[in-house]
Amino acid sequence: MALYSETVMDHFRNPRNVGVIEDADGVGEVGNAKCGDIMKIYLKIKDDVIEDVKFETFGCGSAIASSSMATEMIKGKPLSEALALTNKAVAQALDGLPAHKLHCSVLAEEAIKKAIQDYYEKTGADYDKSIFPACDSCDHGCCHSH
Amino acid sequence: MRHIYADNAATTKMSQAAIRGMLPYLDGIYGNPSSLHSTGQAAKEALESARAVMARGLGCDPREITFTSGGSEADNQAIRTAAWLGAKKGKKHIVSTAFEHHAVLHTLEALEKEGFAVTLLDVHGDGLITAEEVAAAIRPDTCLVTVMYANNEVGTVEPIAEIGAVCREKGVLFHTDAVQAAGHLAIDVEKEHIDLLSLSAHKFHGPKGVGVLYARKGIPLQNLIYGGAQERGKRAGTENLPAIMGMAAAFEEALAGMDERAAHVTALRDKLIDGLGQIPHSLLNGHRTQRLPGNVSFCFEGIEGESLLLLLDDKGVEASSGSACTSGSLDPSHVLLALGRPHEIAHGSLRLSLSHENTQEEVDHIIRSVTEVVEYLRGISPVWRDLQSGKQNFVIQ
What we know:
The structure holds 2 protein chains of 2 kinds.
Chain A: H1 6-13, E1 26-32, E2 37-46, E3 49-58, H2 61-74, H3 79-83, H4 87-93, H5 102-123, H6 135-139
Antiparallel strand pairs in A: 1-2, 2-3
Chain B: E1 4-5, H1 16-26, H2 38-58, E2 65-68, H3 71-88, E3 93-97, H4 102-113, E4 117-121, H5 131-137, E5 142-146, H6 160-170, E6 173-177, E7 196-200, E8 211-215, H7 241-256, H8 258-277, E9 282-284, E10 295-300, H9 305-314, E11 317-318, H10 324-327, H11 334-338, H12 343-346, E12 349-353, H13 360-379, H14 382-388
Parallel strand pairs in B: 1-11, 3-4, 3-5, 5-6, 6-7
Antiparallel strand pairs in B: 2-8, 7-8, 9-10, 10-12
Helix pairs in contact in B: 1-7, 2-7, 3-4, 5-6, 8-13, 9-13
């Protein structure tokens, strides 16, 4: 189908890192079933490095592909690098997304940030809260910033 | 890989009869029906023969048939005409339903901005309205009732003859968008008291870009397009004769084989409904039997429709969905919302619309494919996990 790039279709058809980490160190869920997409990211973290990452996604082809690509991009990376991951980088790695699907890449970025924040909260780490999106923006409404 | 086309409510494959019907008018008889010379007059004769075919199929007079570019144009012109006639008498209220096609709903929205009041009837959980509900909604200032013959997404067939009788009795014009019904269900505008009717050729194996507006004698159509004297001056522009001839051929063929096709397609539909109904937490949209022969519409809890469509396409099954991602907006289908489906359920919808060319074996393949894909997508869905663990309650039992 011409709607998506070959890379998007590949990650949609053969998503990497699908699943659950039962004893995850950080979990982040964003989106809203009402809006048609929910992304949940599980992180296993050791020495500030993402040792393993899994995801579950309810959503369209680009939501599943964005989750797959984003998890590939942070796997084995230090948290600082994962936090620097932007939705633009995810969309670019997918060889682009249609304009009305860009919010899927935003969800991926937000889900990763939320999972890392969850890890910081659980471990009682002292962290800069200002770098995380206010949760109002990720949990409510269907209008994700593009 | 084989392709099983199950999206006939979107459009149909042109029939050989329709193609054969068009060819002479692309090649030999290329004249303009408005020309006085022989080539033009041959075209004019063909045009009128097509008009007669369409009229016979609807049970009306050929002079009551206006050729248009399709269903949307016919809907626009029908509603604009009734509104104009109503406004002249100070009647500016229109009754319709919440799940009409956008060609109707958006025209009504435009009229609201021009000072009309619109009552949209609730279509209930089963996608059906009653003539009594129409009667109760009609006011002294009602100028038009417009109710679709059959719904394009959930396939329900409305009690058109009864609604027509109510409108005739109350002296209110009655329009029906019969785009999904024409060529599939027997229509008789006289018996059903229909004043205005829209149809589109490509829904019954005719060409795209051509349709009909039927307007009962004595209803002066209002122009959407001004120009030449074509269609008695009510629809300017040189007639798309090849398409009109293809439409007439397709309509004739559809009417001749209607009973046989309907029996075949209805059997496939029921098999498909039974098969998909076996999937846990699935729900049929629209009344079980009072629906188009070929329409199957389901919601599957815990998944999203676009990914379902893409994976079905990989398995050779071509269908459609009412999810937001497929509608190109943030909201799922207004039809499913009108039936009372919550947003999260409407996102997981699938429409399969069959034709007489589909087979039992194809239906078996569709059932297997949908079952597999739904199971797979649920397996990667956090919503499904929450439903299964009891963290959230199922909407569809």
